[in-house]
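Late entry, written up from scratch paper. The run itself happened at the end of the previous shift, but nothing got recorded in the book at the time, so transcribing now.
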Amino acid sequence: MKKIEKTNAARLLDKAGLQYNLIPYEFDENDLAAQHVADSLGQDISRVFKTLILHGDKTGHLVCVVPGDCEVDLKALAKVSGNKKVEMILMKDLLAVTGYIRGGCSPIGMKKRFPTYFHSTATAHQTIFVSAGVRGMQIEISPVDLIAFVGGVLADVATQ
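Output as recorded:
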């Protein structure tokens, strides 16, 4: 059995004493969609959350963590984050802003701590899955623990 390499996100959770599972999966360079991740993990898409980076006109960068089958509700996120408008950052800026690449962006351990908003359905689950910071690795964790750890806010910030 191949040893699972700990990611920076996992090391930060270890340091904080939080319980989680590090779960590898087969990723496809041509299909980084959350549905593919959910299928690979054998999990319901509503428990596999994607981490999206946006920019607000007043607050600057912010993070939105939503179920894999949802889209960010830009108006709702702008309102809850104190912005007039928010928009997704350009993919080419993702690495420079967060330290992560597309398909491996985790809400844990970005270069800087940004305001982070989790869709309200996160706490409906005992555990949720988020990227561990690399493609092919997910972290299964209590949403309550994760939200507290990253200083997140729970809000209705997604639509299906």
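The mean pLDDT is 93.
(Scratch paper discarded after transcription.)
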